[in-house]
Amino acid sequence: MLLKHAVRTLCVGAGGQVAAAAAGACSLRRLCTDTVDLKKALSELIPAQRERLKALRKAHGKRVVGEVTVEQIVGGMRGLPVMGAGGGGAMLWETSLLDPEKGIRFRGLSIPELQAKLPTAVEGGQPLPEGLLWLLLTGQVPTKPQVAAVTEELRHRAHVPPHVLRLLNAMTHDTHPMTQLSVGVMALQTGSHFAAAYRRGARKDLHWESVYEDSMDLVAKLPRLAAMIYRHSYKGGEHIQPSMSLDWAGNLAHMMGYEDPGCLEMMRMYQTIHSDHEGGNVSAHTTHLVGSALSDPYLSYAAGMNGLAGPLHGLANQEVLRWLKDLTAKLGPRPDKEAVRKYVQDTLASGKVVPGYGHAVLRKTDPRYICQREFAQKYMPDYPLFKLVSDLYEVVPEVLGKTGKIKNPWPNVDAHSGVLLQYYGISEENFYTVLFGVSRALGVLSQGIWSRALGLPIERPKSITMAALEAACAPAEARPVAAAEGAAAEGGTEAIPMPASAAV
Ligand code: AMX
User: Fold this and answer.
1) How remote is the CA of residue 348 from the centroid of ligand 1, in Å?
2) Which residues participate directly in catalysis (predicted)?
3) Which residue ranges make up each domain of the chain?
4) In a mutational test of the pocket of ligand 1, which residue from 369, 406, 432 has the highest number of ligand atoms less than 8 Å from its CB?
5) What amino acid positions are annotated as catalytic residues?
6) Which residues partner with 127 through β-bridges?
7) pLDDT means over runs of 10, the chain (504 residues)
């Protein structure tokens, strides 16, 4: 590991983990060494967390924590099973938790708390995402030297081998940037430490170590890869070398070709707030699922990125910009609110979604939207596109609310991010989801390291046929018949009862 200078001790006793402390739950123990070495810090935390999970399973493994409804099974597994605050959960995810009303908490910290506590590049500025990475992995707010050590570690891991650029060059310039990202990450997989260690027969309790190496390598290389994709797609393949004095997110802006200090700060904020949104969203869940088969971090993250590329998920930031451009093309740059209302109604009437609005879990305005709005109020208060987005905030929720079916009419993260990028000249909206994807690596790969450290098993939920569900819901006296019909209809041999455990 790089840079092992001593810093002040963090040993302040047990129970200090910000997230669990807030929740009153058992927590990660405080680090008791003077280290700026992230891997060493992790290795000190892992044994106690393994014991914690073991004890939980032993004491409560058979405890019923909720009921499952038919609606939950056919409705995308939302709120499964319902238990306690936060709306329940169907998988273990340690790095962040989404409250439907309050929004995301990163190891217990809200976005304003991140902004207040994490080290920054600029006095009073936006958090450095490297600090968030430390927080996600250890549950501890890092010191400045710890963040500096992560920046340095990432710098040393950032090289992207030439075969990746050759592969990008082989793709046409109009290949969607998310396709290029997925292909580029897959090409990087040749360097997987985990795949090599597994081939050599690495012990299961040591899997996390090579997964850590892969994850840090991948996080380090992503800004370079993303910038290569950007320059390949839009700037005639004229690439820009990384700066050895810039931080991880600042370097991303620099390698894309943007040097405005405001743009660098925007990139630090953007990369921080898009990083993690608990485990159930498509990109996180996919990364988690694929990783559970012991596919290495490159394979599992690339799979997650293919999910992020869907228009109902990360691609929504691109869709928002297209929708805004279409709006201004039809109505002019600053239409009145009545015209905007009509445009929103027309969108709904044409059977399309209003991009950037709604959420599967959130029931209030996304704090990530608010954070970006506050950034815009500070850096670009008079920018016409920002004013238009502010008008939409006043009009869209009311129109969506009137439909009576949309559970959350409020804006999500994607309603605002494109405006900030446009302001700094990053006008190519097809690229926006790549920036989201680079950030998302921080969260999903951190959890991936913990998943291997905790030895979580292959994920394999049992599925069910419609006939079996109908049979399970039929009145008791009708069940055998329904079951038999269901089984016959499906060409199967049995419909109910369903086995509680799943087989691979
Ligand atoms: N515009 C129009 N209709 C919407 C809508 C929107 N913004 N949000 C929800 N609806 C519709 C749904 O399509 C659904 O219609 P149906 O009953 O005819 O199928 C109905 O309202 C109920 O949906 P819901 O329970 O409120 O939402 P959901 O959990 O099924 O979907 C989401 C959540 C995000 C996919 C949806 O709100 C949506 O499509 N939003 C627009 C796309 C978007 O902004 N996605 C980004 C989300 C954040 C992210 O992942 N980056």
Assistant:
1) 11
2) 313, 359, 414
3) 104-461
4) 406
5) 313, 359, 414
6) 120
7) 30 33 47 82 96 96 88 84 64 96 97 98 97 98 97 98 97 97 98 98 98 98 98 98 97 98 98 97 98 98 98 98 97 93 98 97 97 98 97 97 97 98 98 98 98 96 93 83 47 39 38
Identify the residue whose C-alpha is closest to ligand 1 atom 39: 312
* pLDDT digits 0-9 by tens, 376-401: 999 999 999 999 999 999 999 999 99
Residues linked to residue 97 through DSSP beta bridges, in sequence order: 105
Among protein residues, the one with the nearest Cα to ligand 1's atom 35 is 312
Report how far ligand 1's centroid is from the alpha carbon of 367 (Å).
18
Q: At what angle do helices 207-234 and 432-453 cross, to 10 degrees?
A: 170
CB 468 within 8 A of CB 496: yes
What DSSP letter does each residue of 142-154 carry, written as one string?
Answer: PPHHHHHHHHHHH
CA-nearest residue, atom 32 of ligand 1: 359
The model's pLDDT over 19-38, given as tens digits with 9 standing for 90+, comes to 333 333 346 656 556 799 99
User: Which residue's C-alpha comes closest to atom 46 of ligand 1?
Assistant: 313
Distance of CA 367 to the CA centre of its chain: 15
> Residue 163, SS3?
helix
User: Cα angle vertex 7, ends 35, 145, to 5°?
Assistant: 90
Q: Domain 104-461 adopts which CATH fold?
A: Citrate Synthase; domain 1 (1.10.580)
Q: Which two tokens stand for residue 223?
A: 């800004």
User: Encoding tokens for residue 49?
Assistant: 């967390």
Q: For a pocket test of ligand 1, which of 312, 395, 400, 416 has the largest count of ligand atoms closer than 8 A to its C-beta?
A: 312
Residue among 228, 198, 221, 230 at smallest CA distance from 211: 198
**Span from the CA of 407 to the centroid of ligand 1 (angstroms):** 8
Tell me, letter by letter, the H, E, C secondary structure of 84-112.
CCCCCCCCCCCCEEEECCCEEEECCECHH
CA of 310 to the centre of ligand 1 (A): 13
Which residues are 106's β-sheet partners? 96, 109
* Residues lining ligand 1, Cβ inside 6 A: 281, 312-314, 316, 348, 353-360, 405-408, 412-414
**Å from CA of 353 to ligand 1 middle:** 7
